[in-house]
Design a protein that fits this description.
7 helices; 5 strands; globular; ATP-binding; QueC
Length: about 220
């Protein structure tokens, strides 16, 4: 395949994991098509701002920003239902209340439609299985099953691979890889609660801060 014809549709939240995945795709010779989802999450404005700034750094020519009101109507998650508090104790049994029901399945289905239209060979998603919050839709086995379903449900000539290059990494390894690839980590956002300064105590902030701590470097974003 001619390198100029290699396209990767990258699902990008504005967070560190999906940003690293996109940078890895670019370093592998893919033209990046970026897709971002606004789903009435608490930090929607900040995440969208980060997405656009990161796309500028990556010289992304084609961007999709998709607005979904479905998740707000659904509720059932602390990220989309403000009557449910975002946990800050760091102690939760089972699936966290920040889990958004079947979010990655819905995102990947929409991404598949765009990938087929754009003739992209790859969908990139920054799921992390071993060091995540325990979300079921971040498991490698699930993502592989989605790849099979997507290829069964698209044109015969469409052949899409879902790449998840971070799925078996720890957060500290993600930080280290991000530094190696010179990611603009100061432009990424992980906090579930705040849009000005990261709270430092939600599950996502804790995972991020712990990753930087183990990697032995300071996180460049501001915390309360």
């Amino acid at each position: 395949m001619n390198l100029k014809n290699k396209k990767a549709l990258c699902v990008m939240s504005g967070g560190m994991d999906s940003t690293l995945s996109a940078y890895m795709m670019k370093n592998s010779g893919y033209e990046i098509i970026a897709v971002h989802f606004n789903y009435d999450q608490r930090t929607q404005t900040k995440e969208l701002e980060c997405f656009h700034k990161i796309c500028n750094k990556l010289d992304v020519a084609q961007k999709y920003v998709l607005d979904l009101d479905f998740f707000k109507q659904l509720g059932a998650s602390a990220l989309t239902d403000k009557s449910i508090e975002v946990p800050t104790s760091g102690i939760e049994e089972g699936i966290p209340v920040t889990y958004v029901p079947f979010r990655n399945g819905i995102f990947l289905s929409m991404a598949a439609a765009i990938a087929e239209k754009e003739n992209a060979q790859v969908i990139s998603i920054g799921v992390v299985e071993e060091d995540s919050s325990g979300y079921p839709d971040c498991r490698e086995s699930y993502i592989k099953s989605m790849q099979q379903s997507i290829n069964l449900g698209t044109k015969d000539e469409t052949c899409i691979e879902i790449k998840m290059p971070l799925v078996h990494l720890q957060k500290s390894q993600i930080v280290q890889k991000s530094l190696e690839l010179h990611l603009p980590l100061e432009l990424t956002w992980s906090c579930y609660k705040n849009e000005d300064k990261a709270c430092g105590v939600c599950d996502s902030c804790r995972l991020r801060l712990n990753g930087f701590s183990i990697a032995g470097v300071k996180d460049p974003i501001d915390y309360k």
